[in-house]
Design a protein that fits this description.
Number of strands: 9
Number of domains: 1
Distance between the termini: 31 Å
Mean pLDDT: 91
CATH class: Alpha Beta
Largest sheet: 7 strands, mixed
CATH architecture: 2-Layer Sandwich
Radius of gyration: 17 Å
CATH topology: Beta Polymerase, domain 2
């Protein structure tokens, strides 16, 4: 499945969306494979307004398209974090990323140039100071199995990519509110340091009112599948 931003959108509609997303539309317009906006900016895209500051712009792709991602970002400043190198700061050389359930394989990327290389290093090394210029891109890799997006492998939660992504009011392919809310609820639950981040709580609370009954039921079932005691189930 190919889901890319069409050139005519980039040329004619970028003025209707915030500049960071207009730029990501331009950056990804020539990517030939499936991709979608995710994370905090996806929340804002569904609401049609900016709700908070964002340290980066998150997009999601599939592991099957790893080579296409490497080719697309050729010349950029890119480092890869995965199960083999969770804190790597060396430029990504196209090595195959290693899957591990407790470490999401992802890239940190900034445009070409030495200044951006230095900014990337500030972002990926302690104390992790990301430049607030909206040019930090995080590319998150996900598994595609039998045509389904594997949201969680154990316990297993899946969804068809066509059901997980729609065009948001800002015109970008965007992960649907219920799937974004699932990640906000489940990704760091019980994580000693990351669980209960204010941005995750506020994002979840903003997304739930957008859901229709079937989407709300899907979200409730998905969260309960992985965390039967999750406190946010009471909000659904």
């Amino acid at each position: 499945m190919v889901f890319s931003v069409l050139e005519n959108f980039v040329l004619s509609s970028v003025s209707t969306i915030p500049e960071p997303l207009a730029q990501i539309a331009a950056d990804m317009s020539s990517f030939p494979r499936w991709w979608a906006l995710c994370g905090g900016w996806a929340v804002d895209a569904w609401l049609g307004r900016v709700t908070r500051e964002h340290g980066d712009i998150d997009v999601t792709v599939f592991f099957d398209d790893e080579r296409a991602v490497f080719q697309h970002f050729a010349g950029w400043n890119v480092v890869a974090h995965d199960g083999a190198n969770p804190v790597d700061s060396e430029p990504w050389d196209g090595r195959i990323l290693v899957r591990r359930s407790d470490v999401a394989a992802h890239l940190h990327a900034r445009p070409p140039g030495e200044d951006n290389r230095e900014a990337l290093l500030r972002w990926v090394t302690p104390p992790h100071k990301a430049d607030p210029d909206d040019r930090n891109i995080e590319v998150v890799f996900n598994d595609l199995e039998g045509g389904d997006w594997l949201l969680r492998d154990s316990p297993r939660v899946t969804i068809r990519p066509g059901d997980a992504v729609r065009t948001s009011p800002w015109g970008l392919p965007t992960v649907t509110p219920e799937v974004v809310a699932f990640f906000k609820a489940a990704a760091y639950y019980r994580h000693e340091r990351l669980w209960g981040r204010p941005q995750d709580i506020s994002d979840f609370e903003l997304l739930v009112p957008l859901l229709n009954p079937s989407e709300r039921e899907w979200l409730r079932n998905a969260i309960a599948t992985v965390h039967t005691d999750h406190p946010w189930l009471a909000l659904l």
